[in-house]
Amino acid sequence: MKKIIIRGGYKLHGSINISGSKNASLPILAATLLFEETVILENVPMVKDILTMINLLETLGKKIIVKKNQVTILNTNKKKYFAKYDLVKTMRAGILVLGPLLAKFEKAKVSLPGGCAIGARPVDIHLDFLKKNGFKNEIKKGYVISSRQNNKKNINYTFSKISVGATETAILNSCLSNNKTKINNIALEPEVIDLISFLKKAGAKINFNKKRSLTIQGVKNLKGIKYKIMPDRIEAGTYLVAAAITNSVLTINNIVPKHLENILKVLMKFGVQFKINKKNDLKISPKIRKPINVTTAPYPGFPTDMQAQIMSLLVLTKGTSNIKEDIFENRFLHVSELNRMGANIKIENNKAKIIGTNVLSGAEVMATDLRASVCLVLAGLVARGETIINRVYHLERGYENLVKKLKKCGAKIKIINA
Length: 418
Ligand code: UD1
Prior knowledge:
The protein has helices at 22-31, 48-59, 85-88, 98-105, 124-132, 164-174, 190-201, 233-245, 261-270, 307-315, 334-340, 370-382, 393-396, 402-408, and strands at 2-7, 15-17, 39-42, 63-67, 70-74, 82-83, 107-111, 135-140, 143-148, 155-158, 180-184, 205-208, 213-217, 226-228, 250-253, 272-276, 282-286, 293-295, 320-324, 345-348, 351-355, 364-366, 386-390, 412-417. By secondary structure, it is an alpha/beta fold. The chain has two domains: 2-19 and 231-417, Enolpyruvate transferase domain (UDP-n-acetylglucosamine1-carboxyvinyl-transferase, Chain, Alpha-beta prism); 22-228, UDP-n-acetylglucosamine1-carboxyvinyl-transferase, Chain (Alpha-beta prism). Strands 22-23-1-24 form a four-stranded mixed sheet, with helices on one face. It has a four-stranded mixed sheet with strand order 2-15-17-16. The longest helix is centred in the middle third of the chain and has 13 residues, at 233-245. The relative contact order is 0.16. Bound molecules: uridine-diphosphate-N-acetylglucosamine. The site of uridine-diphosphate-N-acetylglucosamine has 22 residues, from helix 1, helix 5 and helix 6.
């Protein structure tokens, strides 16, 4: 079992290059199921979830060549529409192959992703859209088995709740067809927009209407293209917090400033200053520390994927801060581990009250999910003594070269095989 060991109390310096976005790469990789021609994706982060998706696409008949961060997806004659439990169980995004498989073959059998540490995370909204789009869905032995029931023309669908994954399923299911599909109350996360940009470059006809609504005019096929994945805004946000928590001046390279506005707004209230140059490198300099109140919300609101990281920052901020988690019902699993390091956090339903303390002490802690794990790394950077983080595989699902990147900036961090 791998462990991360951190000796806290060292400032960071220099610069960190941001990798390509995991959450943009996953639906774009799933989208390649719609293509006959070859697709080349650049800037794909080589993290565990991506390798799982690549594996899944191979079992569905694609041939895939990986060269550093470039992934080439070729067609073969093998056409499969069965996504096994083994591959989908570790990664909820596995469900994203359902929409494109149905668009291409009109039938599919995909394992349900199952429970997850941060909440029930059902797929009911994905399935409700597919039903509206003419597919019959049955749940049998942990699988969703779907097939075309009728050909619906010109659908106008409104999501009952904003969901990133369900919006992606709807888009992936609708761009190869003879129909016009209008989808309302969609998620506008930059990763959804990146999927749309990719599909449009390949010939899909997708147009935004008013706010949170788009129309897709189906096309017969998509043409093979080369596409560069957007930078990972959550990875960038995580390193911004790393700078703030260690009181360090750090440069974060290769960002899209617009994507970080919601995170920077919160960090500015907390007391950081930053400058962005013409090359889109962001230099952050922490100044003062003020307690703040944060509520997670769909984009352009504050991302739930940054909630744990911002909490580790507030733990060491004098005064009382409050965090309200409005996306997932059980996303405070990191709290008990932070409290074991000396934090004073109280939970009531979806609200966390953080009473600032002066010092954290290193401890042996356990990662519970991807973002919870990274918040323990951040706390470890400033805790007195040694922090040992177990269950490192959670981090490896989503952060490319985390230990290497932090070490290069002066953190005393290593990964060991124990
Ligand atoms: C994606 C991100 C994840 C992020 C989340 C919210 C990927 C691979 N993952 O996850 O990192 O935290 O968006 O920004 O992109 N819901 C239902 N029924 C459904 C679908 C969702 O009730 O069918 C609920 C969820 O339980 C949750 C909320 O809707 O409470 C939002 O979830 P959603 O936006 O779908 O998250 P994911 O796409 O799974």
